[in-house]
Amino acid sequence: MATPVLESAELVFVAADGAARCTLSIYLQGNWRPQADGLAPLLDVPAAQALADGEGQVQLLEGVRYEYALDNAAYRLALAQHYTDTQGIVMQSKAKGRAHCGVLNPGLATGRLPLVLLDQTGAIQSSAFVEVRSRKLSYKADYQHMMQDITAYSVDLLQELRAPSLFKAEPDPGHDAVTLGQRFAFVRALLQNPAFENALHRITTHPHQVWQHEAHERSIARGFKPTGKVLRQLAQGSRRVAVPVSHPLHATLETLPEFVTVNRATPTHDTPENRFVKFALRSFHQFLDTLRARVPDPTKDARLVQEITALCTRLDEALASGVMRQVSEPTFLPLGSPTLQRREGYREVLQAWLQFAMAAKLVWHGGEQVFGAGQRDVATLYEYWVFFKLLDVVAKVFTLSKPSHEALLEPTSDGFGLKLRAGKFVALQGVSTQPGRVLNVQFSYNRSFVATQRPRQAGSWSENLRPDYTLSLWPVEFTADQAELQELMVHVHFDAKYRIDQVAALLREGEHDQEALSQAGEDALSEIKREENRGSYKRADLLKMHAYRDAIRRTQGAYVVYPGVPGDDKRLNAFHEVLPGLGAFALRPGAGTQAIETFMRDVVNHVSDRASAREQHSFHTWQTYESAPPPTAQEQRASYLVLPEKGPTGDSRAKPLRETFVVVGWVKGDAHLQWVESTGKYNFRMGSAVGGLRLSVQVVGATYLLLHGANGVAVPGLFRIEKPEIGPAVHSAAELTAMGYPSAPTQLSYLVYDVVRATEFDSTEWNMAALANKPSNAAQGHPFALSLLDLMLVSRNTGS
């Protein structure tokens, strides 16, 4: 059965004397419609449950708008000034006489929403609060789990910074009012850890006990265990009584003592281990009491006070258990006890106590966005939590040691601060040796890529962009700037998105070809257009990954990390290799990081492969854009019409003009030119003699042959070199003569190309005198090579 929708709820503002000052009524707007997630938009939870959860009784839902009305028109409703975001949440009605009414629009501001009651002069008369719930059903458990993980990681870093043997374990909540809530968040994460709560339950149900021996007198008429001490009492004890003559012992002992003293073993829970548990619980309680006493404004920090009280209540319940009531005060701390170190329950309390002092000294200056002013921003906390999870994966995949504590912790006046903060750049670096390459690795949080028109620098070529996390890889032989300059840098970006559920599903929507774009597909695209017009475009996160991929220079991948169902990951590759690519990874509190780890291993294997297609592409990108040649004039571009669009095979595109080479040779006269045309052969001298052909890359891979004579005039048109991939053949002087060479050969051997007229250039003439970068010995007939682009710039078409 569906949960009935509560259409209104009331919140009472109480005066200083405890009397009701005014009642706030909150209503669902009349145009509200049920959402697909089925969550109740308005709740009024019991007071006991609200206190236990540290929440307000009246609970709203993020993303839903409400109407409100005060029952006294003399008052106005406003948002407390200390709340971090005051824009557009409480909107008073502008209608005459309706200033006591209006709209509540919490938007995405989850957590405690502090409200104040103002009189006509604007003075605050009372305060109250409502709770804004996240649409994520698991957000409470997620919040607690992520906070525990961050606390555990931070404490580990602090232990590296100051070894436990040197750490002064005096937990102090500090005197800075700004950091009270942040310190409490770390301590609460320890004490509300299910492992700690289960440990207390285990101790109270299966406590450690020892058998205590005590002496007492027992009548000789009752049975007892004979010991040497008892036997001596039988022989020597006082207050003796006669043994009846008929008793078998009469022959041995005529009298026996009336009472003997024996030892009785009784179990007791008053052990050093249980005394330590009691001491630890009282230490926690004392810290919380001190923290609560130092809250400067209990009204402003009502949530902090309420949560401290709730945690103290849990500790009081544990201290009031039957086991703890039997335990006396400790006289020493049995830290070396095997029971404390190994027994289930006790070892968890010992670990919590050891970590407690360090957690109490941690300050998280970035945490005000997570829990400041009563907020419970689980979305921002998810961003921080993903940083630590990705950091673990990076350290594991690249066999890096954990980053030094200095990278994430900094000393403060009364403790140590966690540097992680929204908008603040943090970079962790290392070197990783992989098969095929030694790589520099940098894992960055909040790295900004500034818009720049200098393509060789790091940055974006369009707008300033700042992904949440960036993994950068480049060979150790180059600096980061050099790697950017030469297209050797590889950036892979990740963005944390707590509030989205179906990024992978959005990626799957693109899995169709042109024929599959049926009417249903057209309708889906039309709906996307309508969403854009309504401002609710669901593919915005996917397009942001495209923006990272396309705008940030040297970026090869961009991926969303979201709390989806484990295994619901999606990777799209632009080609057949792992990079470049886009995708989404499901990562939620309590679930593993196996998919991301597998992906990163694929990435490092790919970047270490110097024979990959991406490596070849990046090299040609660097080579192609290494210099910026002047643009070709329009009249010069007209000469390109004679060039074929297809290559020699006729089914693929031709090479670019810059990568199509022409070898320039000497023609002795008309007889020599006729021999070339009739035989389809052209010969170059070999060796280091004057005029010998040097086999450069351009010469060996040349596609065309240009001939020129002694007067410096080029022969019109070009010859195409047949099968340029196999290069020229070697012929002897005798073979050349046998082929009818028009003059006597002067060399022993020659390099001979097979050529044929390139008919597309029959109407093209070449101005050799205007040829740029022509070698000085070209007029003497020395061969050289140039690009087809350079040659086309000195061409003239003589055809009609």
TrEMBL record:
Pfam families reported for this sequence: DUF2357, PDDEXK_7
InterPro entries: DUF2357, PDDEXK_7
Residue ranges constituting the DUF2357 domain according to the UniProt record: 102-353
Native source species: Rhodoferax aquaticus
Top-level division of the source organism's lineage: Bacteria
Name under which the protein is recorded: DUF2357 domain-containing protein
